[in-house]
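The aim of this short unit is practical: by the end, you should be able to scan a pair of folded records and say something sensible about each. We start with the first protein, listed as its amino acid sequence and then its structure tokens.
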Amino acid sequence: MDFFEKLGKKASEAYKVTAEKTSKLTKEAKLKLKNNENKAAIDELYIEIGKKVYEKHVRNEKIDIKKELEKECTKIDVLAAEIETNLNECYELKNKVKCNNCSTLVEKTVKFCPECGAKIEIVEVVEDEKEEDLKDTEIVEEKPKKSKKTETKTETKKEKPKTKKED
């Protein structure tokens, strides 16, 4: 009977690990899909901005960017912020952070970036409010609230970190 109990526990543990990994992969796929949708929306906004600018050019009119393009530019800012948030969530799912000095993805456990030597400090961000679906939200000039995620703060160091031989 002991054999079957151990077998059941192992199977249960394997199921939990598999379910967790599958959940992470699914969430990452959804975030990447959302980012692709946002990038397509940004491209459409660029086209819209370009059309407005060209129409003004053809009519030899001056364009007031603040007045005539503010709405599109604000939408692009919001979509870009959402893309960045989604990327950070993807990094979190992979247990990685991005070096702010050289943008290299590194494991959360490292103290210094292996590419540039910059110090990696992990700062936890507390969740203030849940983000709303941006498609249904009226766009305001504020940046969206940050969701619970990990951000990196990079300080550039002139000297490289000591290796075991130097200690």
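Turning to the second protein, read its sequence before its tokens, just as you did above.
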Amino acid sequence: MTEKTDVTWRALAPEDFDRVADLMGRTWLPEFDEAGQRAASRVELAHYLASATWSLVAERAGEVLGAVLLAEREGEPVDGADWAALEARERAAAERDPQAAEAVRVEMDGVEEEARLEQEYAATGAPGTAATVKLLIVAPEAKGLGLGGRLFSAAAEHLRKKGAKGYHLLTDDACDVGFYEHKGLRQAMRRRSQASWPGADPATDEFYVYVYDQEL
């Protein structure tokens, strides 16, 4: 069994991209085939990294067990232009494979819908608009080790030290929102999705997206 004492904690490096994208694909996108998982996860991760100002990775023996990304309203993205360029290249590469292109379209339609909800939330001026948790993921094989809680707490502590008044995140019915409620976040906004998510059709399924926030 993996022990927490064996884990290294550090900022995400460019060479981590493939491993984190692979983790996202196999953890969050099981409905897609291998090509779809790879294409959609790489586009989505590059998209998040393009606005990320702070990161933390949990690694053991060369394996990424978890990661968290923050985008701070007053912060400067780390290599944001490079990640945005990578997103564009990955989108273009996916277009050469119809199945990969469709996977990217479906996944990013959901991401874009969340972004529109986030814009509504930003207009409220709530303390939580100071920062966004763009990504929080833990490998299935590392569940139960407390890595998700430690990653999340480290992100919140970073924001406290920077003087942020709060933070928020976007999530949906495919996630365990109970984790965030246990951490003290509140449901700030809720919208029925109009996007076609993997495994959910807006014409027949009630699938919701949410903003959760917390003051610091």
